[in-house]
# Entry
Amino acid sequence: MDRIPILKIGQVLLVSIQIDLQDQSVLALQEDLAEQISATGAHGVIIDISAVEIVDSFIGRMFATIAATSRLFDADTVVVGMRPAVAITLVELGLTLGQVRTALNLEKGLAILGKLAAERELAEGLDDLDEPVQANS
Amino acid sequence: MSVDAGDTDSLAVLLSKDADVLIARWVALTSAPLRGKVSEAELTRECRELFDTLVAAVSTGSRDFQDPAFVEVRAALEELSRNRARLGFTPSETVVGVFALKRAMLETSGQRTGDTGLREVIEFTLLLDTLGLWTFECYARAREEVIAQQAEQLLELTTPVVRLWDGVLAVPLVGTLDSARTQVVMEKLLEALVETGAEQAIVDITGVLAVDTQVAQHLLKTVMAARLMGAECTISGIRPQIAQTIVELGIEFGDITTKASLADALLYAMRRSGVDVVRKRAQVG
Amino acid sequence: MTAPTGERDELVIAGDEDVVRVRQVVRGFALRAKLSLVDQTKLVTAASELARNAVNYGGGGQAVVELVGNGRRVGVRARFADDGPGISDVELALTDGWTSGSGLGLGLSGARRLVDEFELETEVGRGTAVTITKWAR
# Structure
């Protein structure tokens, strides 16, 4: 069984799936990620699936599970790079991804996490120095 | 006695002799490959009609299919092939009836004439028929491929994905939307989103005259697939009749963004991507 | 009216890694049948669901993948058979969201939506066989 590597970039954990996922690898990844989020206190998780050719219900459920788990650690999950054929198939399959956010590519995924982190800091009132207070539009 | 001996009567006589046995065998041979697609009674009627016109034509001594003597034969064949084509028969299934007459003659020739020369001639022409049929099938298939290819090219041509603004793509749909075309649009639009990184897509159906349940479902699926990929898709230009159809069909458009016009949709998409449009104050002077 | 064109492959599905292998074999056949990218993805996803069902609920089984033709079009047919407990209520098993195990309940119903032809044979105590076909457009 192959273990998927998890990279840490700043406050973000990055998982790039480059192989045809076996169910065991999926389960292992879920465990590994939960541990890593807890250990690092990361505020976001990005799962890059731009190289993934198929997402079936099992893999789809992994995204939802990871998102739900990371919520418990106050981290957001963004799935990036889903191929059109995969998206069309998932819709036909009837799968919804729950609270998972999605982005077209890694860059946009990072931007979403950055924005969410900023909003969170704002909401928590931790930010009193460098960010101007904005009126909600 | 040879088939084309020029003796006006020989072939006609040959055919007319024991005609009922021959026709019965002919019908049986014709019906086998059609697997019940045409009733036995219907076939018998067709064969009998064709047979009678054929004997009449042959009795004139003519063997030229273009000859006026064959007018009725041609008409009967034309009607037969038209009917078959409309009912979706393959070329082979259509032509088999004509060729089956030869086999019927061959099989009944022993009891009818006992002539071995005729037998050989028929056997050889049977072989040629098979070759001819096969050629015809290949030709028809090739034609169908060409037609399918052109249809596909037409699809590509009629569904352009255009960039309306930085990060905003649109597909203006015109004409009749069928399931296949909607699917092509859906795929092209989603691929364009990946290629350009645009997060806003607009499917404008101002030029679409009608939608059915399937097409509406495909539009919905496009929006949902775009969302899964991390983009937002708006549907604009729903005509009043189409809106009515959608409601009557009970199709749930749910939380999908719809706008009355392409302009509204563009404004919405631009705002969503962080651009605001402000009208310049008119210059005095 | 549909006839196998001669190319066919048989695989044993006993575990997790076989599900991945089924996906790869089916993908190969889909390419040979010149299915469009979206249709390939749909077929492979359906095969993945059914192969996993055979492992998880049928205790393993076998898959037969073959190229088929009906004179006009070519396609790929895959049959997944197991010797498991069978399905007592087929209607129910084909309902979205229903599962006898811990899955999402999208396997059977979802797979059916992803293919052109779907045939389910099952007998309680004897096993389940699902045959799916996808035709090139």
